[in-house]
Write the structure tokens for this entry.
Amino acid sequence: MVGADEPTRHCGPMIDKTKFQAGLHALGLAFGKQITADVLRVFDGVLSAKLDTAQWEQAVRRCLEVETFFPPPSVLLRYGLFDTVPAATLAFEAYERIQVRFENGGTHYGTIKAELGRAAADAFVAAGGHRAFSWCEPDNEPFRWKAFKEAFVEQVDSEPSLALPAGNESQAISAAEAKRLMAGLE
């Protein structure tokens, strides 16, 4: 097991380091994969900024229950984030945040994508975009919401990671680090 004193970087939700390592090692034992310091660092970089400890434990439990192969970080994210929150609820939260942005001066596709994820940005466009959100007759608002929700839910149901905002750049590994890790696989 990698030492508990190994440094990690966190800028969002935070997974308890001991529970993170224990969960990853449990997955390694269950699926016959050795957990090296490099594996731990990559998974930590992707998951620690997006999941808290309870979500992490839920993701590990779910993988142990239903997966047949060692899960990549995207599977753990999906189980940690989306097994508990319905896509329609996520759509409503994104819709409300976009409305607040327009009440405070507006926003655009790029900002929505960066802050709320691609599903919200694409749903914003499907619901009429800037024009529909900057002014909407009260009678038309239910139709705007319906178009937004349908577009958001359709995307998130097919690819849950689209509901995630762009990750913190500092959480990603550098290109040099990725090349070094890939060289070890050859």
